[in-house]
Amino acid sequence: MDIVQMLKALGDETRIRILNLLKNEELCVCEIEHILGITQSNASRHLTKLSILKIVDYEKKAQWVYYKLSKKTLEQFPFIKELLENELNKIDICKNDIEILIKYKKSGMTCEDEKFITARQTIQSINKWIMYKKGLLSLAVRKLISIDISKYKDSQGKLILLDIISVLSQIQKIQPTNDVVEYIDNAIKGEYLNKKDIKEIEKLF
């Protein structure tokens, strides 16, 4: 293993913060990005670098990838263990990250919950720009109707579906398509919506 490349990796603040979080337990990518307040692509880029250098190991569990510190590497390079255990707790941002991690764990939030919240926020945000970017409406419809709501818990799937329908109703008023009509028809016939939901949806169209 190239010690120079390892030292370069440890010279990055975000990677140090990631290792700080992993020193006590394994974490999923979405947990790391939430706690550090970084994007998924940013978190994945740094985790890939740490994985290539074998500073962290990873394991895929269902649809999630979990990362943990490599015991073998820590044994081979004890200065890394010394850094993690005795130095990072002196750095304010690292101490703050651990406090956020503790609060996050106590909240009972899961990776599925994180993805659900992000999905709803993304879908709802479309309403803010559909009036100003009409050239993207066809693409928005295709993306929305392709969302697989079955991967969410029943109650979450229903909320995602209602969000999708709400946005589609606005798009349909601007640029009507048969795809939206077919999607709504299938949704009404599906298992997620009750009679009250269907009545509210009919008002939208």
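(ticket continues) Second input and output from the same batch:
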Amino acid sequence: MLPVTIAGQHFPSPILNASGCFNPENFNRMFPLKGTLGGIVTKTVTAQHQVGNAQYRTVELPGIGMLNSIGIQNAGLDHFLDHDIEQFREYKIPIILSISANSSQKFAQMAEKVVTHPNGKWVDALELNLSCPNIDEGGVHFGVSPISVKQAVQAVCQIFSKPVFAKLTPNVTNITEIGGAAIEGGAHALVAINTVLGLDIDVKLKKPVLERVSGGYSGPGIRPIALQAVWQLHKHFPETPIIAVGGICNTEDALAFFMAGASMIQIGTICFRNPLIFQEIHQQLLQYLDAQDLADISELVGCAHQNVDNPQKIFC
């Protein structure tokens, strides 16, 4: 069986899309097959409309992934609640709204808007994108400051009674410190990881390929980084569900993340090349459980930790 429950919220499958893969208009085109996704993670929404960054802001890195510096282009929270959420509701699976803000107070205000808006009742969980600079701490990015992370999560959890997921950045020295702060703030699950900071240079033009020089690197190249983060988070916080994201391209990748400690997975970059990847992994996970005589996907979660003779050697 593949269903998963986190903080009372039932998900029919442990497979989610990663935030940023689509908008409501192209969801049906990109993901035509129902019954495989456990929920829909929206593109990140901010309180107000954002136009995003100038082109070039997305570049494919053949064979290893992509770089993006979109700038969280979106129509704003009001537009999402007034219009977009109605289209997502058609799929009759949980809706996980990804939100971002530049202060704990603004995170709280967005949560309040969701709670009080008539259509907010259709939001089943919030995923906090903690990648923005925190204006309350001089522009330091939320995700690298334990204090900022705890305050943001706490501010939302005091208002929003449904599950709150904290999406963690890998661009830190100790991700377990950040994860612990999110848990202290009340996070019901940790999403690991967000994109890795990177850049590429066009050697013909002798300039960076992105207009803003650096951006978020995603794709198969970050899988070992994400796997290490999930391993460490599960090792330190075995009772906290982890939603793994980063470089998952096939069923073997998915299985590795479950075995490292993930309760659910998100799939992102690969779906631009293979929109049917969700169905493929879903079906192959069922076949794997049957072949291994396992009754539930939860039996795999963290199982690799039991096969390490000296766990102290895992982290240098």
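Agent notes: The domain at 4-313 is CATH 3.20.20.70 (TIM Barrel). Residues 104 and 151 are 6 Å apart (CA to CA). Closing as not reproducible unless the customer responds.
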